[in-house]
Amino acid sequence: MLKLILITSVTIAQYVEVQANYNSLGDCVFSATNNAKVPMYLHINFADLENTTFNETLPYVKKVAPGFNSLFTLQRDIDAEIPRFNYDIETFRSNPTADVDLDFPYLIPLKEGKSVSVFDVKNIDGFWGNDTPDSWFASGFKAGQGDAVFASRNGIVTELVGETRTEESRFWYHTFTNSITLLQPDGTLICYHGVKYNPEQLVVGQKVFAGQKIGELSNKNGELIVLIYHDSLFTKKLSFIIPQFVVNNNGDTEILNVVSPYTVFHPQAIRGLEMTKREKRKYLK
Q1: Model's pTM, two decimal places?
Q2: Which residues fall within 8 angstroms of residue 226, CB to CB, at 6 or more apart?
Q3: Which one of 36, 49, 100, 236 has the largest count of C-beta atoms within 10 Å of its C-beta?
Q4: What is the pLDDT of residues 124-140, one digit of tens each?
Q5: Is 142 exposed, middle or buried (0-12, 13-18, 19+ CB in 10 A)?
């Protein structure tokens, strides 16, 4: 006779259902259903185990795609009763154990060939309500209202926000308006703030490629603020990334300085870094 344990974890962002089913051998098979339109990160922590051994890498953090996901199996010890256990579940919008490449070449997110200036972002008030992170970093670009904004790196659209917010706050990735947020391949999030998007061209769950137009500058000051960050499993706070941006057609990068303007380059070699061969044939011409 099969036994079923169903545990549902609902978090501030989205919800993920975790199932633990005993099979005919007495092993316990874990799976998860992600009911969101975008990938989430699931952390499972076992506080107690009997009659089995957890053989996965610790801490156990799994990226779960929308829909059904297989996780792992707790195999019953030989000649023992069925596995018994207690565990906690956490879900995150970004990878809480992300292995970030600090030298990754990000594209300046404005039109190729354009000369742009960089400004110091003095505050990120409103990024997460009244709770500004203790330590943060953001990149600021000065252009013109209506100028096109391009993706600095590949990603999956996780949130699109216009001039106002109408959905429930528990689904928010932050509290900024006029913003586009992407989940990047390394598990970090990138937020483009000060951007108007076209709902006929961009939807949640869509894959976006480096150098692809994603919107237009929305404010009269022509200021674009970019934040790259991820959850942290160990500190329970957000970790912010200081990005390296491409500064010439050879793909050389540097941390941008406010002293002088920069010319925007979108080399095909950089744009194609995280594309498949098929995607390169389709999007790089």
Answers
A1: 0.91
A2: 109, 138, 139, 140, 141, 152, 190, 191, 192, 193, 243
A3: 36
A4: 988 987 777 889 999 99
A5: middle
In the numeric block, which tokens belong to residue 160?
Answer: 């699109």
Q: 50 forms bridges with which residues in the sheet?
A: 84
Q: Rounded distance, CA 283 to CA 209, Å? A: 8
pLDDT, tens digit, for every residue of 140-173?
Answer: 999 999 999 999 999 999 999 999 998 888 889 9
